[in-house]
């Protein structure tokens, strides 16, 4: 009676007022010992055959057939039914993590070793993504690597997300375009102590005193050249 009254009207102290009215009602006092018997209300049907019941956590199809009803969409992406019917949160989380590690490789990151052949991104001023051949020299911290680039004859630093594995292949010849780097992104070059093969020097004569031709020093801009 209180619930029906609160559906229509509510005010502070409505329960106490209803108790006073019920205590003074002679009809209510006569019918209270023998309430009428009513049939049990059936459990309402779920909106969908695969809808789970809040008590059993199973759908009607699972209770009858032991599995969920499949549709045409399930035929396009069939999945094996889970053998575990437990609602334990720990098992559910473990199963989801296992699927994530299988399909998305979890949070595993690629690892590179010294002297690994790799491709690295070429950072230029344009929005194009270009790749250069490189060789891993050392690891810097947890995510950074120092890479020797033969086309530049120097080392650059790259994040592991900017490095890809490379199969054995001949090193491409350096071109003027490959030297166009963004100095704000790659400011570092190889130090003189870096142990890498130096460019081959031209030697003249055989059986004579060996003469090594060194490159001429660059002339500063604006300096007039003098005849020797």
Automatic annotation (TrEMBL):
Residues 40-59, 171-228 are annotated as: Disordered. It comes from the Eukaryota. InterPro entries: Retrovirus_Pol_polyprotein (IPR050951). Residues 40-49 have a biased composition (Pro residues). This is Uncharacterized protein LOC126912466. It comes from Spodoptera frugiperda. The gene is LOC126912466.
């Amino acid at each position: 009676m209180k619930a029906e009254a609160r559906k229509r009207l509510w005010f502070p102290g409505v329960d106490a007022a209803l108790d006073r009215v019920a205590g003074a009602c002679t009809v209510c006092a006569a019918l209270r010992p023998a309430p009428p018997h009513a049939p049990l209300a059936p459990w309402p049907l779920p909106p969908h055959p695969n809808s789970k019941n809040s008590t059993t956590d199973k759908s009607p199809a699972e209770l009858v057939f032991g599995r969920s009803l499949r549709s045409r969409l399930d035929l396009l992406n069939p999945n094996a039914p889970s053998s575990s019917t437990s609602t334990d949160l720990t098992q559910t989380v473990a199963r989801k993590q296992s699927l994530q590690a299988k399909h998305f490789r979890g949070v595993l990151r690629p690892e590179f070793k010294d002297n690994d052949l790799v491709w690295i991104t070429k950072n230029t001023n344009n929005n194009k993504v270009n790749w250069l051949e490189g060789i891993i020299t050392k690891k810097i911290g947890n995510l950074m690597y120092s890479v020797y680039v033969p086309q530049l004859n120097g080392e650059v630093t790259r994040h592991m997300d900017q490095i890809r594995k490379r199969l054995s292949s001949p090193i491409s010849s350096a071109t003027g375009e490959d030297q166009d780097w963004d100095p704000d992104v790659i400011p570092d070059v190889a130090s003189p102590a870096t142990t890498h093969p130096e460019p081959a020097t031209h030697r003249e004569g055989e059986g004579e005193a060996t003469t090594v031709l060194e490159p001429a020093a660059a002339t500063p801009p604006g300096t007039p050249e003098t005849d020797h």
